């Protein structure tokens, strides 16, 4: 009887890690069997392209959830980043100084490399600043982070509306639509999107930070038991601010990537991004109670959620207007499963 105890404990330990992978495989098998045309290279290309924005935003949210906080402003921060980029780029084309835009012999105006870099860098810095403000207010006020970030969500919405006045901005640095829509041709039928390399680099860097740096260890300690971490000398307030700053940065990058994907920037974008990003992190098995999970989990969650989203498009008996309800049911199921697995591990 006692010889079976380690085996049971091992199964409990790996239950949370195996569940997301099993979910991903189950979704692929289900759609491959019950839909027509799902299991092909075109679908794989669609999954990779659609997963890019979600993966970027979910990466930052992973840091926040690991330290037992939440950021509800990510979708509007992403929208603000796209709008800020579009407005800046349009201004450079219209009235920007010579260092930012030049007029060719034929009268056409092009943005210089300096201008393109600024149009991409300033929105990202704005996202970091918003994350830092979220963190500082959360630590200073001792209010729940969801209250602070809920208010910041409305602030970001207002700023985006003020900048754009409701207009769409199709002009942007060429690197955005190229990285989001183009790729490396592999064989005759498959194109590996450049966005995979961008997202892969960022997720690898995030994984390295969480696993191999002191800050990463402090993130897990803060989320696991904040009071114990504080007594051990961890500056938990600094950790919370740092995680929310990272989340603001990745949200901005996700907004820029999405603007490049649809070749336009405006206020009516990323409407479902908050739900999608949280669903990806939760589906991956990162605990809502902090201290457990990681980037590998989030990657699996992003793939599972995107396979579900793309696969539902092949299911003829699911009405387009019901797809969001199905997504909500999946998120609810993941939340319930997450809670049950946490209880199993505690017993």
Short précis:
With 347 residues, this protein is mainly alpha-helical.
N-end to C-end Cα span: 18 Å
Which consecutive residue ranges, at least 5 long each, have pLDDT under 50?
1-9
Overall 3D shape: globular
Largest sheet: 2 strands, antiparallel
Describe the 3D structure.
This protein has 347 residues and is mainly alpha-helical. The chain has a single domain, classed as Orthogonal Bundle (ABC transporter involved in vitamin B12 uptake, BtuC), CATH 1.10.3470. It contains 13 helices and 4 strands. It has a two-stranded antiparallel sheet. It has a two-stranded antiparallel sheet with strand order 3-4. A hairpin with a 5-residue loop joins strand 1 and strand 2. Helix 1 packs parallel to helix 12, helix 2 crosses helix 12 and helix 3 packs antiparallel against helix 4. The longest helix is centred in the first third of the chain and has 31 residues. The chain is globular and about 70 Å long.
